[in-house]
Amino acid sequence: MLKQMLDYAFQVSSCTSLQPKTKLLVESLKGTKETKNDQWTKVMRSVNMENLRTGYLFPEISRREYEHSEKYPDAKIIKLGIGDTSEPIPDCIASAMAKQAMALSTVEGYSGYGDEQGEKALRKRIAEKFYKNMDVKWEEVFISDGAQCDISRVQMLFGSHVTVAVQNPSFPAYIDSSVIFGRAGNLQEQNEPISSSSALPTIPPEQPPPLPNFAVSLISPPPMVPSSSTIPPTPLTSPTAVAIEISSFSKFAGFTGVRLGWTVVPKELSYSNGFPIVKDYDRIVCTCFNGASNIVQAGGLACLSTEGFQAVSKVLNHYKENAKILIEAFRGLGMEVYGGENAPYLWVHFPGSSSWEVFAEILEKTHILTIPGRGFGPGGESYIRVSSFGHRQTILEASKRLTSSLRKFNFN
């Protein structure tokens, strides 16, 4: 079967006229590697892909989870790592998606391709709900299938010659997508590329951070923004500052499996030659994306209704209470804990310890899956990241295991 698939691929390929080499290392259908007396293409692998790190962080965590479950088949693993939502989507939101799906079975309700930029009603609702009094126009809001996809789409806007500055630690997708688009360069782990310290003055927490006019800034609001009143304003709140903002329904609406997000590209933001960046982003969306699912967008509209927003806030409060339980457990052991208020993640400090070793020991002794901070960059070393997503009983059990087991550990 695999041989037939490869033969067919070469028949329809534009490379059929090339002289093949003698061997090709392929993955068999059973998932084991075999050496076949077949064909190598003459297509070179992208240098950018070769520059990537060995593996992406989250699949590596899943691999270690699988190995642990094979070693301890009877253990109940508690997943406080990757951060997948656990609570059901509120009925008013799920019902809106179900209604839209059923409408597709009728002549009157059927709809095919929509606008690549997203449905006008949802774009308007997002601009009104999240950017009120910020002068963000609905035409600047682009609906997508999630923030992580948009991180890569935004990368298409800029050539491989640009320099990318990321905070340390940082979400791995920012770094890996930069490498894939040819911006690996020489990694500078110091904070020196952003001019001098005078360019980033200390400001009161209630004011938005300043944006440099020599760069394009990408910002991503905390996942729990909708139910929080303590979030400092983002740069988009300033009438004179503009930035590309990437957001998602994944965490605050429980859409991790549903997939829906948006990106704001202000019309005032331009390249060095004065050409509006939003025009290029529109072209990228039309070329590389055919628009988010109309069923999912119906769910997005329902999320931002009065009823839907209240229902989503209740779920977020559940996760916040989970975070408080976990914070209390760690601090009760004398550990420093950060986060858990505006985002569903805690960062727990284990001074002088390797974050991967801490991750491994916690998994071994408690069967609890976390994330080593080092996976987010050198700045995450000696930390682990712990998710507050989970059913209440699961979080209480995790707190119990951590409290009883961590007292016995020696991480230094």
TrEMBL record:
This is Putative LL-diaminopimelate aminotransferase. Keywords: Aminotransferase, Pyridoxal phosphate, Transferase. InterPro entries: Aminotransferase_I/II_large, DapL/ALD1, PyrdxlP-dep_Trfase, PyrdxlP-dep_Trfase_major, PyrdxlP-dep_Trfase_small. Pfam families: Aminotran_1_2. Residues 76-177, 243-397 form the Aminotransferase class I/classII large domain. Its cofactor is pyridoxal 5'-phosphate. One of its GO terms (molecular function) is pyridoxal phosphate binding. It comes from Cucumis melo var. makuwa. CDD domains: AAT_like (cd00609).
